[in-house]
Amino acid sequence: MTYDQTLFYRIHCYNTQRCQEMNEEKLRLMKLVEHWVEHNDAHGDRFSEEAIKAEKLGLNSVADEMRKASEASGKVSENLLKAINLLKESDG
Fold first, then answer.
1. Cα(31)–Cα(37) distance, integer angstroms
2. pLDDT in tens, 14-72
3. Cβ contact 40:69 at 8 Å
């Protein structure tokens, strides 16, 4: 835990109820971000599947853009997973 996190925790967790509320909010946020990762991954997979279909139709430029969207979706999921790990590492 960094000095700033420790200070924040000491200032804002001065009573048990406030700490419990913060932990509940942190858990809610973690579950929400986990949901976003799953949802985003499903979209990324779908982009790839549809890119194949577009290519079969001769729509190569369309397929290329859809593949780029799929790759970008993967990067979004990476960032969201990093956020989840930071949430797990944080205290309070």
1. 10
2. 567 777 777 888 899 999 999 999 999 999 999 999 999 999 999 999 999 999 999 99
3. no
Where along the chain do its domains lie? Answer: 23-89
Locate 31 and state its tokens: 């579950």
Owner of token pair 């200070």: 7
Contact criterion met (CB below 8 Å) for 38 and 73: no
- Amino acid, res. 34: E
Model pTM?
Answer: 0.72
Q: Which of 33, 41, 74, 69 is nearest to 54 (CA)?
A: 69
